[in-house]
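Repro:
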Amino acid sequence: MGAGHDHHHGSVANVAHRHLGRLWAAFGLLGTLMVVEAATAFGTGSLALLSDAGHMFTDVLGIGMALAAITATRRTSRDPQRTFGLYRLEVLAALANAVLLSGVAVYVVVEAVRRFGDPPEVVAGPMLAVAVLGLLANLAAFGLLRAGAQENINLHGAYLEVLGDLLGSLGVIGAAALIAVTDWWWADPLVAVAIGLFILPRTWRLGRAALRILVQAAPEHLEVTAVHDRLAAVPGVAEVHDLHIWTLTSGMEIVSAHLTTAPGADVGRVLTAARAALHEDFKIEHATLQIEPGASPGVCGPVEW
């Protein structure tokens, strides 16, 4: 016999839905400023502003992924063929984000290094004005996302992105002010390199996390052996096998396992205790557990894969 548990998907959706208006506001605000920054970067020749626009793109995409996840929760039950809903779209978007932004960051760093030999003149006035607008937009988005960041992992990720981009905007403002006062053109490529090097490790971590989910590896923060041993320690469990742990999307871990019970064990109590152990010790809300009474050999046939 088996049992599943699926309250977590609803809780993720409910938390996010409460902050839907704030998410859309932050998405629109940062998206608009991202376009303005990119256009001004090309117009002024500022690499620092271009790199900051690239970093702001991660903010916009991060919020977009949170919005996509909310949409996915609403559509989960509409198509009976999509038994896991559309949650993986968020992971695919994260991987695309990592690849695209890595390319932008590498381009900015390489171009900045090339410019050190003969830095071109940069129009500091528009660069400074747009950088200040970017800072104000990030401060506004920071305030919009702050409330939900403590309740939802997707909102928390977007919140951290905006927090990081605040530093980038301050760097561009500093570079523009320095150029305006001293005509020290090296300030622009220096800040561009700093922002590019700040972005790269974060995008690689994002890409690595997305790939782990897509290949259905166990979450890094969960030790499979620890979960196995905890289930084996449940009173009435004689053996644990066919244990699988994977992530559906950020914050949604899933477990499936077969539990062979000792002779005379109460199957209902074993199932309840196993679920409670997964919830209390590992914060796992979705578990499908197959109970195999020890007195019934051959219940679990061999698996070829």
